[in-house]
């Protein structure tokens, strides 16, 4: 049977390399230099003398070993293969160009590429040229080799007919940042290596987040202590083609071995390198072709050295785990901010209880991220929203332990992860209980101090200076569902402007045509009726028992005026809105009491969208205590011991510092 070979065309080569962009293609020629043992690679670019600064020509110059003429067929003729790939090299070589196609990527930024290379063979220096046209990538032209007058090896790759995309702006904004990310780890490990652009050394310090000189002490099987010195680096950005690795160098800074750390692909952006320097690593005997199992067994000829290296690896991994913990704490804060920007967090109200629930949930999400950041990895917006809502739903029930099965369906939790997660759930539960206890304790203190202000007339508390200040700071007294619109000394026009801004986001001047438009409400609150998904508003007029012992029709008439302004102002008249008005004082005179339509609730009047209530302070206090009764009974707080205030100034200061305040 006749044998035929498949022909690889120039177009098919370009198709295979279609994922390359100009900066990645340029980096291939830099790698080729370092693969040839260069210590310095210089990119020389000549720009046009015009406003666009297009690149007229480019040359990449290295001081490596050059390309041996006798090996040229193996190095240039074979595509997608290379002598670099075929040779069983030690893992110390860090050879990059193993696929044999880096030399052809120039078509991404230029039409022509020419190599002028010098190499040493049997103590004699030779030189020759190679040319490739991007129109015909499958073939190359070479000159005859000749003796060289130079006494140094190296290669110059010159590019002509440069694409117009390659300009001074491109070099500064794309090429240099790309090279910083791609070569930072290599330049940090290979201290004698340099990349220069038009003679200026590439500065990669901007991609280093943290750098620390470290020392590790390890004992061998004879209990002899060995000290290893190294450098830890936390990278701001992920390398384009390198995992987070351990690099083991001898004292001449030759890389003897590299190995990925255990913290790759954890979904946390913890990009790192750990470089350890010691002549001990000269003893490593692993080849490029070793699998992981044989590598661990045959890394050293000496069992003693193998065990010592194993202990060192354990120390290195423990060190990285310690570095990762504070990093994850910082990252967790950023993750929450990202969730809030993306509007994927569950919605919480603004009252004290909901704020407590929100903080508890945020703390839980942050701590979950610290335990297993990969839970949040590669989720789109909808998936994030659903997952966070699910977490919040389970957090609010007794099914917290079911989070194990939920997360097990998403990721594979290790034994350590499950233990950490169990501790996290218990800690979060305890934090929430403690926070709730503190909130209830603070609220009880408010109630006890409010009683003193209301009913201890010897304190001579004033309505505006004392009572109103308490009510404004603790408007939860009238319900958990409300937000403050305004209080005291705010005219109706200003109140309307703020109300429409809070409700609709409308920010403009308003005008009210009503004779009572200059009156001032003591407290104006707004919230949402969740049953009907509509605005629910509350206006409160408070009367100090020290000054007014009984509410009369005179005070009732005042709150009726408030209702009249609102009902007859179009901007307040959305048919979905409901309005409640409460007049509250120490007692109610007989005439006003006889007018109440429902003496149990204090309902005095009602219309389609509004109701007016008249209440005693004792009823308000009873309502608060009824709402908290279950928790009060559970906590069994000795209320009389909560407040240490002995006079009115001390009492007001105590209330001002109280954490139950809404502002």
Class inferred from helices and paired strands: alpha+beta
Query: Distance between termini?
Result: 90 Å
Stretches with pLDDT under 50, minimum 5 residues = 1-6, 83-93, 637-642
> What percent of residues are in strands?
15-25%
Dominant shape: elongated
Compute the number of helices. 18
Largest sheet: 9 strands, mixed
What does this structure look like?
With 663 residues, this protein is an alpha+beta fold. The protein folds into 4 domains: 194 residues, 2-Layer Sandwich (Heat Shock Protein 90); 110 residues, no CATH class; 108 residues, no CATH class; 207 residues, no CATH class. It has 18 helices and 20 strands. Strands 1, 2, 3, 4, 5, 6, 7, 8 and 9 form a 9-stranded mixed beta sheet that branches. α11 runs antiparallel to α18. The protein is elongated and about 120 Å long. The N terminus is likely disordered. This is ATP-binding protein. It holds the Pfam family HATPase_c_3. InterPro entries: HATPase_C_sf (IPR036890).
């Amino acid at each position: 049977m006749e044998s035929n070979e498949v022909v690889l065309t120039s177009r098919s080569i370009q198709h295979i390399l279609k994922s390359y962009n100009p900066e990645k293609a340029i980096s291939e020629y830099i790698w080729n230099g370092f693969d040839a043992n260069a210590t310095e690679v210089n990119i020389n670019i000549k720009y046009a003398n015009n406003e666009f600064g297009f690149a007229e020509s480019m040359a990449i110059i290295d001081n490596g070993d050059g390309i041996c003429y006798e090996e040229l067929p193996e190095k240039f003729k074979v595509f997608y293969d290379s002598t670099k790939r075929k040779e069983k090299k030690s893992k110390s070589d860090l050879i990059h160009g193993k696929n044999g196609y880096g030399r052809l990527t120039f078509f991404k930024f230029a039409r022509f590429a020419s190599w002028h290379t010098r190499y040493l063979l049997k103590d004699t220096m030779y030189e020759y040229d190679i040319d490739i046209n991007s129109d015909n990538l499958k073939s190359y032209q070479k000159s005859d080799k000749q003796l060289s007058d130079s006494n140094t090896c190296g290669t110059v790759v010159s590019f002509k007919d440069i694409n117009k995309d390659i300009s001074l702006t491109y070099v500064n904004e794309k090429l240099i940042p790309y090279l910083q990310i791609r070569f930072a780890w290599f330049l940090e490990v290979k201290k004698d290596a340099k990349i220069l652009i038009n003679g200026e050394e590439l500065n990669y310090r901007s991609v280093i987040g943290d750098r620390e000189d470290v020392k590790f002490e390890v004992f061998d099987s004879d209990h002899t202590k060995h000290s290893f010195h190294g450098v830890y680096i936390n990278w701001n950005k992920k390398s384009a083609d390198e995992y987070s690795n351990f690099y083991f160098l001898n004292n001449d800074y030759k890389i003897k071995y590299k190995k990925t750390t255990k913290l790759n692909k954890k979904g946390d952006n913890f990009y790192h390198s750990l470089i350890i320097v010691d002549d001990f690593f000269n003893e490593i005997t692993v080849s490029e072709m070793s699998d992981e199992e044989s590598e661990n067994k045959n890394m050293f000829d000496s069992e003693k050295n193998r065990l010592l290296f194993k202990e060192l690896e354990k120390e290195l991994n423990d060190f990285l785990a310690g570095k990762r913990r504070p990093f994850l704490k910082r990252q967790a804060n950023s993750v929450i901010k990202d969730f809030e920007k993306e509007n994927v967090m569950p919605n919480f109200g603004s009252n004290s209880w909901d704020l407590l629930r929100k903080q508890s949930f945020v703390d839980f999400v942050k701590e979950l991220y610290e335990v297993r950041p990969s839970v949040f990895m590669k989720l789109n917006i909808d998936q994030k929203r659903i997952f966070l809502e699910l977490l919040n739903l389970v957090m609010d029930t007794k099914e917290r332990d079911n989070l194990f099965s939920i997360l097990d369906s998403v990721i594979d939790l290790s034994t350590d992860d499950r233990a950490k997660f169990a501790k996290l759930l218990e800690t979060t539960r305890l934090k929430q209980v403690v926070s709730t206890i503190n909130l209830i304790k603070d609220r009880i203190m408010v109630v006890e101090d409010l009683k003193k202000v209301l009913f201890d007339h010897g304190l001579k508390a004033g309505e505006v200076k004392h009572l109103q200040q308490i009510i404004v700071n603790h408007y939860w007294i009238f319900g958990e569902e409300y937000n403050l619109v305004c209080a005291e000394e705010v005219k109706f026009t200003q109140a309307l402007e703020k109300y429409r801004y809070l409700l609709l986001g409308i920010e403009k001047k308003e005008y009210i045509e009503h004779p009572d438009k200059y009156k001032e409400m003591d407290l104006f609150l707004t919230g949402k009726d969740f049953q009907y998904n509509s605005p629910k508003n509350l206006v409160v007029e408070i009367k100090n028992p020290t000054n007014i012992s009984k509410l009369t029709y005179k005070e009732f008439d005042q709150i009726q005026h408030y209702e009249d302004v609102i009902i007859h102002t179009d901007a307040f008249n959305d048919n979905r809105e409901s309005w409640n008005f409460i007049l509250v004082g120490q007692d109610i005179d007989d005439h006003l009491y006889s007018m109440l339509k429902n003496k149990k609730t204090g309902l005095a009047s009602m219309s389609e969208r509004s109701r007016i209530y008249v209440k005693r302070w004792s009823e308000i206090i009873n309502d608060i205590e009824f709402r908290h009764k279950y928790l009060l009974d559970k906590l069994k707080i000795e209320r009389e011991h909560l407040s240490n205030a002995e006079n009115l100034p001390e009492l007001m200061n105590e209330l001002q510092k109280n954490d139950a305040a809404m502002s």
